[in-house]
Amino acid sequence: QMAPARLLYSSCSLEKTLLCSCSFYGIPTPSVQWWMGGAPVGANSVDSSVHVTSTIIAPWANSTISLTEQPKMSTSLLCEGKNQNGTHALSILLMPRKSSFLPQTFMKGLIQGVVYGAIVASLLFFCLIPLMVKHIRMKLAKKIAAVKAGKSPKVKACQEPKLSLKPKEPEKSTITPSSESEILKKQDKGAHE
Fold it and tell me: Residues annotated as region Disordered (predicted)?
């Protein structure tokens, strides 16, 4: 009795290495081939980063691949079972796992950013101090000059004498008696004119 190759079981796990397994059933017993990124990976071969192990117990064919290095972004992994009656395959899209150092990298970058920001703010502050001091001195000099010139309205108000609301007392006039002869002389002069 003939049967095309069929994938009956597959699994992947990730700990220190990525480990994927495929189990095919077929009559005759299927052969299993792994493909990574479109290139075939040899059965029972050991690469520096890829290790493939296949076991055949008729009518079953089992194969396992382990990757010790992180794959490149969006690498495809294909497990293919084939016999003369048909082919069946499982495609797995590999994504690089998140780095365990990501939180440490983030914190390091955050601390560096804070330190560099503080340095820049300090330098900017020290560069602006002379300008701020010059501005303050100019304002003080203008105020001092205004006080000296008496142009300041506050100073003028303080310097003006305060007017009392009491009415002034009339001045007393003094009358000095004149002699009668002087008055007559003045009258005679007026009559002659």
Answer: 158-193
